[in-house]
Amino acid sequence: MYISLMAMSVTLQIVLPVVLLTGLAVVFAVLIAVCSEKFAVKRDERIDEVTSLLAGANCGGCGYAGCDAFAEALVKGEAEVGNCGPTSKENKAKIAEILGTSPEEIIVINACKGGAKCREKYDYQGYGDCASAELLAGGTKACPTGCMGLGKCVSECPQNAIIIVEGVAVVDQSKCVQCSRCIRFCPKQTLKRLPKNAVYYVACSNPGRGKEVREVCSAGCIGCGLCAKNCPSGAITMQSNLPVFDYTKCTACGICAAKCPSQCILKVGTDRN
After folding, report:
1. Could you tell me if 70 and 60 are in contact, meaning their C-beta atoms sit under 8 angstroms apart?
2. Residues 120 and 231 both lie in one domain
3. What is the pLDDT of residue 8?
4. Beta 191-195 vs 242-245: how paired, if at all?
5. Do residue 167 and residue 147 come from a single domain?
6. Does 176 show up as a binding residue in the annotation?
7. Does 182 show up as a binding residue in the annotation?
8. Distance between CA atoms of 156 and 85, rounded to whole angstroms?
9. CA distance readout (Å), 232 to 83, 124, 183, 224, 258
10. Closest listed residue to residue 248, CA positions, set 205, 196, 203, 202
11. φ, ψ at 176 (rounded to 5°)
């Protein structure tokens, strides 16, 4: 009898914890399942649809880790489909339809034509890269917003669509796929996106007044406003001493470029003045 009771006691000591732990495991499993269902952050189904329409290169040219991350940003309204160069126009249109937007076609230009006409602060002898030069007193140019022409954009462009001409980066529109990678790496942010229908643009980014600009660059915009005053369609306004185009109004008449005393209003795709 005593031995039997001892055996039963030992059995209970083994079985009871197992039963209790199993019961707790079942309870916690049910709680986790309920909580995961109740508090789950549901993935927007459109993300997978958009991802399937992207080029799938995962090149990172859009500024995101990959196509899935870019698709998520598109759905959240944090990115624009035009940022993906490799994706076809047809698929971009389909993506825009899914998102309820209109596909935006863009071009990339360099809003600076200074080059040799812009005064140098010092003779840079270090690693030949704009990003590196920027770390040393804000870059080589006396103009705080001037293109340094050291080619960071050139080395980052996957299409070899950018060359340095007379110390300034120039975008070859026939090669550019509008991935915007160059914009992301430009330390001065002189590379900018414009609507596809843009014909003229301002090749200066210095918001200073006329005298301030002339002290650092002979090719800079002096903010005289002649372009805005003479534009027959009212497509130009002056903001922070710089002309700003409304391309929905611009008729590409070219009067602004003809009136500009600094010749800093250029035609897209033409040689720099």
Report:
1. no
2. yes
3. 60
4. unpaired
5. yes
6. yes
7. yes
8. 14
9. 33, 45, 32, 17, 13
10. 196
11. -65, 135
| C-alpha distance from residue 153 to each of 67, 81, 207 (Å) | 22, 21, 23
Confidence of residue 165 (pLDDT cuts 50, 70, 90): very high
Would the annotation count 130 as a binding residue? no
* Residue 100 sits in the same domain as residue 122: no
Here the tokens at position 62 are 């859009």
Q: How many domains does the chain have?
A: 2
- Is 143 annotated as belonging to a binding site? yes
Are the C-beta atoms of 268 and 199 separated by less than 8 Å? yes
Q: What is the pLDDT of residues 73-98, one digit of tens each?
A: 989 888 878 778 778 888 888 988 89
Range of the domain at 224: 107-267
- pLDDT number for residue 223: 95
Helix ranges (DSSP H) in the chain: 2-38, 45-53, 67-76, 89-99, 130-134, 152-156, 181-185, 210-216, 226-230, 255-259
CATH assignment at residue 52: 1.10.15.40
118 is in an annotated binding site: no
Q: Which of 100, 102, 96, 265 is nearest to 195 (CA)?
A: 102
pLDDT tens digit sequence for 43-55: 778 999 999 999 8
Is 204 annotated as belonging to a binding site?
no
Same domain, residue pair 113 and 98: no
Residue 141 φ/ψ, nearest 5 degrees = -85, 145
Start-to-end Cα distance in the chain: 111
Answer yes or no: do 204 and 235 share one domain: yes
pTM recorded for the entire structure: 0.70
